[in-house]
Write a structure and sequence with these properties.
Length: 124
Amino acid sequence: MKSHWRSTTDETEPRGSVGEVSDMGWVSKAGARIDHEKALLLRSIVLPILDDAETWAALKIALEEKGLGVAIQRGRLMLTDKSTGTSICTGRFLGKPLNVLVSRLGKPHVRLGQENNACGEILH
C-alpha cells in the first residue's frame, strides 16, 4: 500500500540530528492517516517532551526546538509542523489529550484565531 505521506524536503538536503523532526515532512494529503513508522517516531520524540514539561511555555519551547508547534484546533490540542503550520496529529493520538495536560499544567493562555471555530495559538 502506498503511503500518503510525502517529504517536504529535497532528498539531497542534509537531515537534522537524531530526534529532530523539523525535516521529517509531516505533511499529508487531505484525510490521510499517519503511517505506523512515523507514528512511532513521533511518539518517541514528543511524549518525553509532553511528560517533562512543567509549564505551557516550556512545552512550547521544547517542541519548537524539534521543529514542532502546538495549537488548539476545534477545541483539541494539535501538534503542528512549525515551518508550515500544517496539522500533524492531535494530543489524543499521542496519548496526551488536552484535558490531561490541562490537569497537570493548568489552562493555557490562548490567542483566538480569526475563524470562530475554537481555534487558537497557545501563547504560554
